[in-house]
Amino acid sequence: MKNNLELAKQVVDSVYVITDMPKLNTRRHPHPQLRGAITVALSKWFYSHTIGEAMNRDRTVVNHYKTKHEGNLKYWDGYKEFYEIAEAQTKAVLRQDPLELRIDTIDRQIKHLLNERDALLNKDKDLKGTVL
Description:
The protein is mainly alpha-helical. It has helices at residues 4-19, 31-43, 48-55, 59-75, 79-94, 98-129. The chain starts with a helix and ends with a helix.
């Protein structure tokens, strides 16, 4: 199974292919619209830092796009169409309920933390058994 970052990058790449737009780090229209639309579509599935990394942006930009989303849908010509494409593509690539994905992420975090806990307990046990 792919990790969250790989899945997010896959969505980003596929939306750029579908819209036939190059990935450019520019503020020229319509690139910010597409980045914003993809970011908000991904925000229902992933944490801000994952989306930021997939988009080659800081996580705070994700929060900015989320805050401006409703206004962008109403007043920014072209944004709504990009958002609909990004939303549909996100669902198509992930084909999973966002809740299920979050639960899977939490389960992996719990597993990692339990492994770390066991390692610390073993280290503590070894230290107590050492005679100085």
